[in-house]
Design brief:
288 residues; Arc Repressor Mutant, subunit A; D-Maltodextrin-Binding Protein, domain 2; 12 helices; elongated
């Protein structure tokens, strides 16, 4: 609820009782009465009421800096109050995908919960583009993305991750210390579904290769099982393969396709305090 000092400052800003009323959701007469009450309190006329709009009188010009300071202090007080209450019963909504949900988030979430036990988490799985849409629509506070895949968000880099080839135990390429994209392109490839922006596909395109893609699958573990059964070959980020250690042959890709795993949000200043604090916690956790 806006104070009379705030209403006064809005009237001076807009030069109109009517425009101010529309902005703050009051009636025009309520705004006018508020200014009149303030003038009575100060025993002077603060504004000129004319056909060309509302302007400050000489006394109004003298009082305005002080009234504006009171209004600014009120805004700061309300902001601080909201921040102090911000972590109580807060839900942090995060756009993520399997590797992050399984291997990056659990530890910082557990530590953050110990410090702020009333905070709740909501993890929304998706691709880069669906995470970006969720953030822009206000359904997600922040998310994990490849910054090359999003255009309308602020991003903060976390770490570099490279793709590694995964092969069944009996594949001819297991005799190679590393494989090339040209060798992988022969397939059959089980393509991890990253959405519209797919790093493996981009790597093939940069080498002007047409890969033999026979399957497109979202779930990493399903792909691993399919590779184990000999249905094809694929590529995963090193963080997943280091943690899972599947019963597959893993080879470096000579061209070293990489992504910069990053945090992304729409507007830092308007993001809930709990989400901002958790982002800082994640960054400190990974850097240490």
């Amino acid at each position: 609820m806006i104070s009379r000092y705030g209403i006064f400052c809005k009237v001076i800003e807009t030069g109109s009782f009517t425009k101010t009323a529309d902005i703050i959701g009051y009636s025009q007469s309520a705004v006018s009465q508020t200014i009149k009450s303030l003038e009575q309190e100060l025993s002077t006329t603060l504004v000129n009421r004319g056909k060309d709009g509302i302007t400050l009188t000489r006394d109004g010009e003298q009082y305005f800096p002080y009234l504006h300071s009171i209004y600014s202090a009120e805004l700061n007080l309300n902001r601080k109050h909201s921040e102090m209450q911000g972590l109580k019963n807060s839900t942090i909504r995060i756009g993520t995908f399997i590797t992050v949900s399984r291997f990056l988030l659990p530890e910082p979430m557990m530590a953050f919960k110990k410090k702020y036990p009333e905070v709740k988490f909501e993890l929304q799985q998706g691709s880069y583009d669906s995470i970006e849409r969720g953030i822009l629509d206000g359904n997600i506070d922040f998310g994990f993305v490849n910054p090359d895949a999003v255009t309308k968000l602020e991003t903060r880099p976390l770490l570099r991750q490279r793709l590694q080839a995964v092969l069944p135990k009996n594949h001819p390429l297991i005799n190679e210390k590393e494989v090339t994209l040209a060798q992988l392109a022969q397939g059959p490839i089980i393509l991890p579904d990253e959405g519209e922006y797919n790093l493996l596909l981009r790597a093939f395109q940069q080498e002007q290769l047409t890969p033999n893609i026979e399957y497109k699958v979202y779930d990493d573990y399903s792909i691993m099982s399919m590779v184990e059964q000999g249905l094809g070959i694929s590529a995963f980020y090193d963080i997943l393969l280091a943690k899972v250690k599947p019963d597959l042959e893993i080879r470096e890709i000579r061209e070293r396709p990489e992504r910069t795993l990053s945090l992304a949000w729409h507007n830092w200043d308007t993001m809930p305090l709990a989400a901002r604090k958790f982002i800082d916690y994640i960054v400190n956790s990974i850097s240490s």
